[in-house]
Structure formats: structure tokens, C-alpha cells
Amino acid sequence: MAVPWEKYFRLALQKKLSTKIQGQNMDHVPPPLLRLLEKRQELVDADQGLQAQKEVFQTMQASLKQRWEQLEQKEQELKGSFVRFEKFLQDAEARRSRALRRAAEERQLAGRREAEALRLRAQLEELQRERARLQRLLWRLEPCARLLGQVMEQLPEFQEVPELVARFDGLADTQAALRLTERQRLEELEEARARLRRLRDTWQDELLRQGQRRAQLLEQLEAAQERTLHWESKCIQIQNTAAEKTLLLGRTRMAALNLFQLVCQHQRRPPALDIEDTEGQLEQVKLFILDLSAMLASLHQAKPAVHAS
């Protein structure tokens, strides 16, 4: 901050000095004295100006500092007020939510109680109707009860009415099961009779179809037997051909072995290949024949040269 203020003061001083110098009479004062006075006056004016501006600056700085402190205090007060107001709003909203929730719960509870009361009232009416129906049924069944009492007196093996009723229910269930079994047996008998009629109607056709099927199977059997004989003869022929090829292969391998042994004897070295390595033996024989052919060709070429000499 020092450099900008110094520039400001320097510019102000230069402006003031130029103004004063232009306003004075330069004719009656010696130049050295005039310059000295001007310098002294400039220093005094500059000092006064700097002091005044310094005081103004300090005053403004203190005022600004106090203003900033007041603003920060007000800001803190406003923040506190906002926090308190926000808390107040939250508390009010929480109280309102609790009140609304309690009111909704009370309405739901009242609705459930009303529904429960209606259900109990309807259940009570249903029970009253059931009681009236059972009362009417009791009045109608009272003669039956007297009859059951008389039957119990005549049947000493039953001590209580429920025993007699259970016995009657068991007999009724047995009768129903027997009727159901009888109906099932009659249905099975009817189905068997229907199958018997269908078999009687279709046995001749079935017998004819079976005869035709038997003839077809016999023809297929004869054809299969013929094919079997044909392939058996083919198999025997193939076996014979294979035996001949095997015999020929054995003879070939023996001839190759003999040639290889003759080559080894001619070269006066022992056989270095396996007995079963027929291809290697033939290769050695081939190389020997090629070498021998080359040797004979060179001999034929050398004979004319000898005769010419």
C-alpha cells in the first residue's frame, strides 16, 4: 500500500509547486535565493500536504475499519437471527407435522372403530338370525328327539343318542360306498361287453391283416437270407484276397530282405536296419543300384577313351 500513496503524494506536490511558481513574480528575486525559497516552501507545503493527507487517510482507514466491524457484527447478528428463525420454522413444521399425524391417526382410529362397530353389529344380527333359525329347527326336531328317546329305550346297546346317530351315519356311508362300487362295476361290465362286441366285429379283419403281415415278414426274411448269403460269399472272397495279398506281401518283404542282405554282403558291412523296416531296406537297395548304375556308366564312358589311345 506504501508505493501507490507515495506516487499520489508526489504527483500532488508537483502540481502544487508548478502552480505556485507560475503565480510569483520572478523579476525582483535573485535566482539562487528564489530557488532556495522555492525549495523551502516546497518542502513545507509538501510536509503539510503529506501530514494532512496522512491524517485524512488514517481517519478514513479508522472509519472503514469501524464500518467493517459494524458490518461483521450485523452479519453475525443476521446469521444468528436466520439460524433462530430457521429453527423456529423447523420447530413449527415439526409441531404441525405431529399435529397432522395425530389428527390422521385419530381419524384412522375412528374409522377402524366405526368399521369394527359395524362389523360387530352385523355379526350380532347374524347371530340373532342363526339363533332364531336354530330355535325353529329345535321346534321342528322335537318330535324326532322324542322318537329317538323311544328308540333308545328299545335298543339297550346304545347308551347315548350320538352313538345311535354315529351308527346310522356309518351305515349310510357304507350303503353309499356300496352303491358307488356297484355303479363302477356296472360301468366296467358295460365297457367289457362293448370291447367284446368290437373284438367280435373286428377279429376277422385283424386275422386277415395278421396273415398279410406274416406273408410280408416271410418275404422280408427270404430277402434278408439272400442278402446274408451274398455278403457271406463276398466276405469269404475278401478274406481269400486278403490272404493272397498277405502272402504276396510276405514274399515281397522276404525278397527285399534278401536283396538288402546281399547289398550288405557286397558292401561288406553288417545290416544296420531292423528286419521289419522294409521301406528302409528297399531304400538302401535303391541307393546301391543307383551307385552301381553310375559306376557302370562311368566304365562305359572310360572304355572308348582306352581304345582311342
UniProtKB/TrEMBL annotation:
Domain DUF4200: 36-153
Coiled coil: 89-140, 179-227
One GO cellular component term: cytoskeleton
This protein's UniProt keywords: Cell projection, Cilium, Coiled coil, Flagellum
Protein's name in the database: Cilia- and flagella-associated protein 73
Species per Swiss-Prot/TrEMBL record: Neophocaena asiaeorientalis asiaeorientalis (Yangtze finless porpoise)
Lineage, highest ranks first: Eukaryota, Metazoa, Chordata, Craniata, Vertebrata
Gene: CFAP73
